[in-house]
Every structure is written in structure tokens, then in C-alpha cells.
Amino acid sequence: MSSSTASVNGPRRQISERGKEIIYQLLTARRRIQQLTTYINNLRMIYNMSDEHKTAMYQAEQERHNVIDQEQRMEVILANQFDLSGAIIRDNMALQSLIPE
Organism's domain of life (predicted)? Predict the structure, then answer.
């Protein structure tokens, strides 16, 4: 069911539109995880945290966990359905090269 036509070491793999959409979503999820991690770390630096700050941090941590779960599911789909190696899946630049703009 793989839609790739070139080897991993080849210049470019051909990925279906569905595969490209999953890669785009994965890269977006990774950016969101970075944003949430930075936000949570900034909140942790507040010395006297108000209840509002505590609530915001809790909500950000929950969202971060949810996005990480989504990221892991998309990685499994890319490995199983689109025959991408773990090395490519973990490399944002390699993934980006599979979805030309």
C-alpha cells in the first residue's frame, strides 16, 4: 500500500496527497508542542503564581499531552501506511522535503 517510488536514499520520494496531509499535520503538531513547552516553562518561572496562572499551566500541559498523543499516532501511520523509516519520521527537514510547497 506504499505510494513511494524512490528509495529512502533517492532524491525524493513520491508521497500521496493523504501522506502529505499527515506530514503537514505532524509538522504542525511538533511546532505546537514547542510553543506549549515554551509557554509552560515561562509560566513556571512566575514566583507567586495566581490561580489563573495555575489553571493556564494545567490547561497547556493537558493540550501538550494531547498533541503529543496525536504526534505519535501520525508517526505510526507514516511508518505503517507510507513505509517511511523512523529516521525520516523523526527528521523535520526530511519530512518537509517530502511536501514541496
Answer: Eukaryota
37-68 residue pLDDT tens: 999 999 989 888 899 999 999 999 999 999 99
Grid coordinates of 76? 505510526
* Residue 11 resides in a domain: no
Please report the sign of the dihedral spanned by the C-alpha atoms of residue 49, residue 51, residue 56, residue 58: positive
Is the overall model pTM greater than 0.85, yes or no?
Answer: no
Count each helix (H run) and each strand (E run) in the chain, helices first. 4, 0
The tally of domains found in the chain comes to 1
Q: Has residue 52 been placed in a domain? A: yes
